[in-house]
Amino acid sequence: MRRDAGWWALLLPAFLLLSVFYIVPIVQVLAISFMEPEPGFGNYERIATNLSVQRVLLTTARICIITTAIALFLGYALAYAITLASENARRWWLLCVLVPLWISVLVRAFAWVTLLRRQGLINQTLMETGVIAEPLALVWNEFGIIVGMVHYMVPYAVLPMLASMREIDPRLLAAARGMGASRIQVFTRIFFPLSAPGLVAAGVLVFIFSLGFYVTPAILGGGRTLMVAEWISLQILDLIRWGLGTMMATLLVVTILVTLAVFSRVVNLRRLFGGAR
Amino acid sequence: MSTALELNALSKRYGSFVAVENAELRVERGAFLTLLGPSGSGKTTILMMIAGFTEPTQGRILLDGRDITALPPERRDFGMVFQGYALFPHMTVAENIAFPLRVRGMTKATRDEKVRGALDLVQLTGFADRLPKQLSGGQQQRVALARALVFDPALLLLDEPLSALDKKLRAELQDELRALHRRVGRTFINVTHDQDEALSLSDTVAILNHGRLQQVGAPAELYERPRTRFVADFLGKSNFIRGRAEPGLVHAGGVTLRQHDATSGDVLLSLRPEKIAIAEGDNALDGRIASWSYLGAGYALVVDTALGALRVHLPSWRAPVAPAEGLQLRIAFAADAATIVQDDADAP
Question: Which are the contacts of B211, defined by CB distance < 8 A and separation ≥ 6?
Fold first, then answer.
């Protein structure tokens, strides 16, 4: 017993750190959302009544779903290519996937601005070659946000899918070929179903990440298209409406927890965070 | 009987490494052939070339007289039991077995009927809705067999089908595999490094070493008349005696032995331990037991003689002597007990 107590004591500093700096503020956020400007459910009623709140929720949901879909599609293709590549090629592929993760999200967002803006590389090239007469609106709208977010999310989509694809026994694919299956049948009947858990896991990860995205939408949306995180910062820092801001923050946390709870029944989420099966 | 499968000068090289060199082989229709060899001998490479997963560097593969060398695996018409079985983990037993039928576009009614037949064939009736992970190793192996046979392929390839099982189960499944082969009457090609499995299962055994076919023949023929030192040593145990031959005789270690097929020159004799008896007779020698061990059915003795240390196997039931270290005895073997073998340089 006493030995056990000693071990638990070792955990105490970490526990205190977490509770003081992490759990307490979150509880406080929850409390503020019910207390300000006056006690009650007033802030939460706005989800049903306030057009601005509804618009920001809808925009966020739309952007997140589209981003997740595109990132999953691109990530799946990449993970598939990496899985089938030779050992040597695989290392280079992985490096190419991981390098963007080491570049600041701010730098990447501004890089996209220079590429996508009216006088940017893409618009200029298209106009000089005569494909378009007027520059396209590629940035400071939802399109720009989605481009930037997909770019950020693809590595996060690739990694869980790659992990699940590499667990697939290559002999299964050879066996299927040997039994008369074409390459397409091997993919649709064997490879895809076996990689599906990784696909779902990657989808959950990317979707949850997208929900709280701040920097990329702030820069590539140009203040015109608001997502939840930027809207919260606007409420709290500029409009000093703490109640409304914390209500949205609480809603965000609850949505993430619910998403996790639902999908943890479908797939093993521990795999997502690197745990053993 | 006609030839089902023929390998013509089949070779596979990886850069300068020779995996298979000039393999020539004919397999009769309905035969059970085992490719036997130590690891790295090229036996699996030959199987993979027959299946089409590995492309030969040279040579041709004929199935029923048709050149299949250039065909992809899915157009070759073989069933295969993979090492570790390669059952699809996301499909039930029935779905696994139906897979080859499904990709051939058969209707559900036909599929269901054939799956039922295949399950009966391997005695797994009632297991249709289980997942592979809910089955024991032996049951998984039978599902793999059913899946490989359900579409009536011309050829069944088995890649170390029993290696994942424990010894007792392996013996059981050997019998089952033999019975299954008799029931379906297809050509079976098996790969193994287990000599007992090769001897007990096959009609024909092909022994490989370093990518070369050493000898092909019926199990008894290979055991009784090995052509090379490697074959004699790999299949069972053997004593090797070096000597000089003259017609009917071999001089070795200062002793003259009678050897029925001796002619002339330097020779190497392979002598199986169980063909040496404790008795007087032809080729009788004085010996002293250097060490011995009890194996249940028999004793394994090492006897020091003028020919060197000889291994002798003695049935333990009513053994003529009670083995003891240092015991002096007379041993003998018949003039046709030993076989003259070729001394291949790389044998251990």
Answer: B12, B18, B19, B20, B21, B41, B42, B45
> What residues are paired with B287 via a beta bridge?
B329
Taking the C-alpha atoms of residue A41 and residue B214, their distance in angstroms, rounded to an integer, is: 87
Tens of pLDDT, residues B69-79: 999 988 888 99
- The distance of A178 to chain B (nearest Cα, Å) reads 5
Q: Is the pLDDT of residue A134 over 90?
A: no
CA distance A199 to chain B (A): 15
Task: Report CA-CA distances (Å) from B99 to A165, A180, B117, B139, B315.
Answer: 21, 9, 15, 18, 51
pLDDT in tens, A50-107: 898 999 999 999 999 999 999 999 999 999 999 989 999 999 999 998 888 888 889 9
Give the predicted TM-score (pTM) of the model.
0.79
Residue A67 contacts residue A150 (beta carbons within 8 Å): yes
pLDDT at res. A223:
79
| CB contact A274 to B (< 8 Å) | no
Number of domains chain A contains: 1
**Structure tokens given for A276:** 């053993």
Provide the CATH number for the domain around residue A190. Answer: 1.10.3720.10
Rg (CA), chain A: 23
A256 falls within a domain: yes
Complex prediction ipTM: 0.76
Phi/psi at B253 (5° precision) = 55, 35
Stretch (H or E) spanning A43: helix A42-49
A3 belongs to a structural domain:
no
Q: Are A194 and B72 a contacting pair at CB < 8 A?
A: no
Q: Is A42 inside a domain boundary?
A: yes
Residue that the structure tokens 């965070």 belong to: A273
- Report, in this order, helix, strand and coil percent for chain B, each rounded to 5: 25, 35, 35
* Domain assignment of residue A10, yes or no: no
Task: Give the CA count within 13 Å in the CB-facing half-sphere of B289.
Answer: 19
Contacts of A182 in chain B (CB under 8 A): 74, 103
Q: Which chain A residues are within 8 Å of B49, Cβ to Cβ?
A: none
Q: Closest to B103 (Cβ–Cβ): which among A179, A193, A194?
A: A179
Domain span at residue A153? 36-274
Give the whole-angstrom CA distance, residue B194 versus residue B178. 16
